[in-house]
């Protein structure tokens, strides 16, 4: 039993010796807490910075889709919810079968491709690829003369305008693309 009595006073001495530093740490913590409360009170009474100006609503890309050419009708246009892509289909008002025009305006992240196409005749697709300029904007026209179908791609700022046509003349593609206000579109 004797050894237990020696251990007990030694343990008490260690505990009493560790109380003083703990009390000092509590005092430091209380001082820091008081400084934080003081800073928070100063910030609460300080004048608030002016709220940033409200951003104007970004116009929908759907508004840039061209109106149907004369003698054509436009099916309801569609767009993605974040206004980054819109498309419309056009058909002759007389109801010609197999004849159609499609217009798509898409942000570059949605655009397929992006590489410069090889100009000239492509035997795999039967299309002739050529450079075109529509409303001062450079682009590419891929045209298959035997099927009278093709695609026209233009870039307007961060958007790509794609016009596709089936059983139409290539002038129909360029005319539809020219009816888009590419200057305003590129400013978005």
Account of the protein in words:
With 188 residues, the protein is of the alpha+beta class. It folds into two domains: 1-49; 61-187, Protein Transport Mog1p, Chain A (3-Layer(aba) Sandwich). Helices cover 31% and strands 30% of the residues. Strands 1, 2, 3, 4, 5, 6, 7, 8 and 9 form a nine-stranded antiparallel sheet that branches. A hairpin with a 2-residue loop joins β8 (149-156) and β9. The longest helix has 44 residues, at 2-45. The termini are far apart.
Keywords:
9-stranded antiparallel β-sheet; Protein Transport Mog1p, Chain A; alpha+beta; 3 helices; elongated; about 190 residues; 2 domains; single chain
> What is the 3D shape?
elongated
Write down the domain tally: 2
- Mean pLDDT score, rounded? 77
Give the ordered list of helices and strands: HEEEEEEEEEHH
Counting DSSP E segments of at least 2 residues, the number of strands comes to: 9
Query: Span between N and C termini?
Result: 90 Å
Q: DSSP strand (E) fraction? A: 25-35%
Indicate the CATH architecture of the largest domain: 3-Layer(aba) Sandwich
Quaternary organisation: single chain
Task: Please provide a brief summary of the model.
With 188 residues, the protein is an alpha+beta fold. Helices cover 31% and strands 30% of the residues. The chain has two domains: 1-49; 61-187, Protein Transport Mog1p, Chain A (3-Layer(aba) Sandwich).
């Amino acid at each position: 039993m004797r050894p237990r009595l020696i251990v007990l006073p030694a343990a008490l001495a260690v505990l009493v010796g560790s109380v003083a530093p703990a009390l000092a740490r509590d005092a430091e913590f209380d001082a820091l807490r008081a400084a934080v409360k003081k800073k928070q009170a100063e910030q609460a009474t300080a004048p608030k910075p002016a709220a940033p100006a409200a951003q104007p609503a970004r116009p929908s890309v759907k508004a840039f889709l061209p109106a149907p050419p004369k003698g054509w009708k436009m099916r309801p246009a569609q767009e993605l919810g974040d206004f980054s892509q819109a498309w419309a289909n056009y058909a002759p008002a007389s109801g010609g079968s197999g004849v159609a025009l499609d217009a798509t305006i898409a942000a570059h992240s949605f655009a397929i491709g992006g590489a410069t196409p090889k100009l000239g005749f492509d035997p795999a697709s039967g299309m002739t690829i050529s450079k075109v300029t529509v409303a001062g904007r450079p682009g590419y026209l891929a045209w298959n003369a035997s099927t009278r179908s093709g695609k026209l791609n233009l870039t307007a700022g961060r958007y790509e305008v794609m016009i596709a046509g089936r059983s139409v003349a290539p002038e129909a593609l360029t005319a539809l693309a020219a009816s888009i206000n590419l200057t305003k579109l590129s400013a978005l």
